[in-house]
Amino acid sequence: MSETADHRDGRDRIPGEIACLPIDRLPASMISDVGNHCQVWRQGGGFVQGGKRTSSDLVIKKFRDHCSFAEARVYAREHRRLCEALDDMIPATLYVHTRVDGQDSVIAIAETVPTWFNVANPHNEDEAVPLLARLARSREQLRRFIAAAHRWREADDPKVIDLYGVDNLVLDRDYRLRYLDSFGVFFHESLLYMLAEVDYELKTKIDLSLARLGYLEHLLDAADRAAD
Predict the structure, then answer these.
(1) What separation in angstroms does the CA of 117 have from each of 44, 89, 90, 113, 124?
(2) Domains in the chain, ordered, with CATH?
(3) 161 forms bridges with which residues in the sheet?
(4) Are 20 and 71 in contact (CB under 8 A)?
(5) What is the CA radius of gyration of the chain?
(6) pLDDT tens track of the chain, all 228 residues?
(7) Is 0.85 surpassed by the pTM of this model?
């Protein structure tokens, strides 16, 4: 069952407990409750601590389940891998292992990205081709994203970047390509064959992510041709 926002003082707040944050003093609004791993809240407008007012505009991703310190380190390491390959496409993010709703878990605190256009959705192709044809910088970012995705899949431990999630790959309002996922950003294909039975849920996520990667290649080719 989804948590509902705390409405003290007539403003939304993140419900429950996040031990490292004074959430009772942080106005926040829910952005998404549909992800497999976390709820996503936007905290903005500022807060008062120690008599001093601090302005802020952050995204707080509250992990749904128990998460060990070792698992939290994996999430942070995967984020660093994204940053090394895609740098400015990845929002700055801090991972904190803490108590969440009475259990050891993790949160991610990220810069807010004002999303504008879902690039990986094939239903947007008619709009995306002429748009990207006009945006040389965005096309080069998409080219770099596709190349990195292929390198990860062709590595010794093949990994498929998560394009299954809703709105993972978007253009922001400055027409920059941004990848927004924070938890479980890679699907490991080797896990499909470790058990006697195929993990069909994982297979569905991998297949859809690869199909969307193929669409992105088609989209880039079409936009390059339209730009000539």
Answers:
(1) 22, 14, 16, 12, 9
(2) 8-111 (3.30.200), 115-227 (no CATH)
(3) 186
(4) no
(5) 19
(6) 455 555 544 468 889 999 998 888 888 899 888 777 889 999 876 666 667 766 678 999 999 999 999 999 999 999 999 999 999 999 999 999 999 999 999 999 999 999 999 999 999 999 999 999 999 999 999 999 999 999 999 988 889 999 998 789 999 999 999 999 999 999 988 777 776 677 888 899 999 999 999 999 999 999 999 998
(7) yes
